[in-house]
């Protein structure tokens, strides 16, 4: 972690301690849907948004609601580099799917990749190289065993014009891999979610510090 980001963890650890986070285990099927299916939905959401409105490059949280169409689960976005602070308001009945660090690849970005297996190998190598993965919820450190690695097999999606990765517009297919936590619906009020992940070399560092306001809305 970069030294200038260390104060973020200090603030999280010193936050008001609430109940231990209530999370879904990897064997669970939240709302009848597997983790693989939920992470696939997350990637389809993430890749569908134009860059200028993308939650991953939003420094405030004002774009967090873009394309959030599921009634049961709220998708939090990470970043494409560095640590961001955001304030987000959600309805109290929603579960929250949170990426700690993840990666995707598609035929649009790498036409030289010819099959699902080749793309899965590409993402696997990147995630195998992760050195740090951390998550805190309301000051509680999430143990490594509860930060779950999930591979998202071949899925269809549409890259919009001016998309997050600068790929050509149009229909494509991709895969994903990464580490996640999945929070059950939180109590009404303010919560803090902090995640951070980096590769072994430290060149890739991704994190978010989110003040999550759960309301009746």
How would you describe the overall organization of this protein?
By secondary structure, the protein is α+β, with helices and mostly antiparallel strands. The chain has three helices and nine strands, in the order ααβββαββββββ. The strands form two sheets. The protein has a five-stranded mixed beta sheet. A four-stranded mixed beta sheet has the order 1-3-7-6. The radius of gyration is 17 Å and the shape is globular.
- Tell me the strand order in the biggest sheet: 2-9-8-4-5
Order of helices and strands: HHEEEHEEEEEE
Class inferred from helices and paired strands: alpha+beta
The tally of strands reads 9
Count helical runs.
3
Largest sheet, strands/sense/barrel: 5 strands, mixed
Helix content: 10-25%
Enumerate the spans where pLDDT stays under 50 for 5 or more consecutive residues.
Answer: 1-17
Beta-strand content: 35-45%
Q: What Rg, in angstroms, do the CA atoms define?
A: 17 Å
- Bulk shape: globular
**Average pLDDT reading:** 90
What is the terminal-to-terminal distance? 36 Å
In total, how many domains does the architecture comprise? 1
Secondary-structure map with pairings?
Elements: H1 6-13, H2 35-47, E1 73-75, E2 82-91, E3 95-106, H3 116-128, E4 130-137, E5 140-141, E6 148-159, E7 170-183, E8 189-199, E9 205-215
Parallel strand pairs: 1-3, 2-9
Antiparallel strand pairs: 3-7, 4-5, 4-8, 6-7, 8-9
């Amino acid at each position: 972690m970069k030294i200038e980001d260390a104060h973020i963890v200090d603030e999280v650890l010193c936050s008001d301690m609430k109940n231990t986070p209530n999370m879904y285990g990897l064997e669970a099927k939240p709302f009848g849907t597997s983790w693989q299916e939920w992470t696939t939905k997350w990637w389809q959401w993430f890749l569908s948004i134009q860059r200028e409105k993308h939650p991953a490059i939003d420094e405030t949280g004002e774009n967090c609601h873009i394309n959030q169409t599921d009634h049961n689960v709220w998708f939090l976005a990470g970043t494409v580099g560095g640590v961001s602070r955001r304030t987000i308001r959600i309805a109290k009945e929603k579960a929250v799917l949170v990426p700690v660090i993840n990666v995707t690849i598609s035929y649009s970005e790498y036409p030289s990749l010819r099959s699902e297996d080749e793309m899965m190998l590409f993402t696997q190598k990147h995630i195998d190289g992760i050195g740090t993965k951390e998550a805190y919820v309301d000051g509680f450190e999430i143990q490594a065993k509860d930060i779950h690695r999930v591979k998202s097999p071949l899925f269809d999606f549409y890259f919009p014009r001016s998309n997050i990765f600068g790929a050509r517009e149009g229909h494509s297919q991709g895969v994903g891999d990464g580490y996640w936590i999945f929070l059950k619906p939180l109590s009404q009020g303010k919560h803090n979610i902090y995640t951070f992940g980096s590769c072994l070399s430290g060149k890739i560092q991704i994190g978010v510090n989110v003040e999550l306001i759960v309301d009746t809305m």
